Amino acid sequence: MRLPTAMPCCSPLVQPLLFSTLTFDPAADLAPVSPVGTYPNIIVVPDSSPFQKLEEFIAHAKANPGTMRWGSPGIGTVPHLAGELFKHRAGIEITHVPYRGVNQGLMSDFLAGRLDLMFNTTGSLLEPVRSKQVRGLAVTSAKRFPDELELPTAAESGVPGYDVSSWYAIYVPTKTPPDVVAKINADMATTLKAPAIKEKFKLLGVLPQGSTPQELTAMNVADAALWGPIIKEANIKVE
Question: Does position 1 have pLDDT exceeding 70, yes or no?
Fold first, then answer.
């Protein structure tokens, strides 16, 4: 039997919306087992930025459409999708500048002031926010992130109803016997309660979270429903 696969961030159901050349059918070929952990993205500005709150950035962007530049770690990544949803919900027009990961020029350009805003993961941005390299304006989740409670949510900061949480999850081939799926799920639930695992996840900016396969299935469907219209509207394709 093939080993379980850990997939980050997006539901497998989102992948066909982004990639036109997939060699497999995520919906038919992968069976959900359990989430592993969740995390928000963080919305930041350079430390030299005049904006202290997300509301201030939104107001300036509305008054100056098309003049602001924002960066993400790549086309089709959840930070990219989160930024496109933010633009849509906030009613602003800002220019996306995609990179190939945070270490491929994104952070250096950002610190140099070549970008006005960035969306990226807690793993990439928690430490820069804490060390005052960048200024955190908000997290993208519906609730504040427990490890950085002073950061408000985007929904609290002028974008009502905005809610984007990324997650990791375990999947297996669909022909995996149900008793094997149940065993992996139970073992995962036990593992996520271990103090050493919680501490490791904390360093990564991830909150441990498991669930049943049925609950993960519902997360998959909700993820596709959230991102489908945004991917279509922004014509996002990963080739």
Answer: no
For the domain covering 5-39+164-228, report its CATH number: 3.40.190.150
Structural domain spans, the chain: 5-39+164-228, 40-157
Distance CA(33)–CA(11), nearest Å, equals: 13
Contact 44, 135 (CB under 8 A): yes
CATH code of the region 40-157: 3.40.190.10
Give the span between the Cα atoms of 14 and 76, in whole angstroms: 10
Q: Which residues contact 32 (CB under 8 A, 6 or more apart)?
A: 169, 170, 171, 213, 216, 217, 220
Any idea what the Cα angle at residue 57 is, between residues 63 and 125, rounded to 5°? Answer: 150
DSSP one-letter code for 23? S
Averaged pLDDT for residues 93-99 = 96
For all residues of the chain together, what is the average pLDDT? 92
Element (H, E) at 224: helix 213-234
User: Which amino acid does the sequence have at 75?
Assistant: I
What does the pLDDT read at residue 160?
96
CB of 58 within 8 A of CB of 158? yes
The amino acid sitting at 178 is: P
Query: For the residues 88-102, what does the mean pLDDT come to?
Result: 91
Angstrom distance (rounded) from CA 74 to CA 65: 23
Q: Look at residue 169 and tell me whether its pLDDT is greater than 90.
A: yes
